[in-house]
Amino acid sequence: MLEAGVVTEVRADQASVRMTRNAACAECGLCHQLAHPGHDLVLSAANLAGARPGDLVRVQLPDLGVVQAAFWAYGIPTIAAAAGAILGWVVGGRLGGQAELGATAGMIVALVLGFVAVNRYDRRLRSRWRGPAIVEILDSRTGGGDEIHLHPGPSTPDAQRLSR
After folding, report:
1. pTM above 0.70, yes or no
2. How far, in Å, CA of 4 to CA of 59, rounded?
3. Does the structure show a pLDDT above 60 at 96?
4. d(CA 56, CA 42)
């Protein structure tokens, strides 16, 4: 997802970017985790475009896939627990009539295995997640003044709103 923001501070290869929330923020969840509701979001982004404080920039935010993440976090362990309980019920009933005990043991073992699977998947995703990055300078404020110098590139309503 591409969003517009204003650079507030630059440190080495990272920049702090102030961004105004929009309708997509409700779906993403990143803004909710990083800022107080009703306030602008300030996040750290890789400064790939060489932006300076005051520059209006386009920031590439990773798509978090909230529904997919919820499925992995809640659905996989739940499905594993249900499958383990059914398997434990069947095996426990055939091995001596203790179906309830087998179902309980199967559910617990499968639930733990489900959480292990989610943990491994989460680690794999985290190793590939690079975080937000500044990919384009939309407007540049040079010389410390309030003048804005436009760079060629698409203009978005977010960019126009932030430049005011």
Report:
1. no
2. 6
3. yes
4. 14
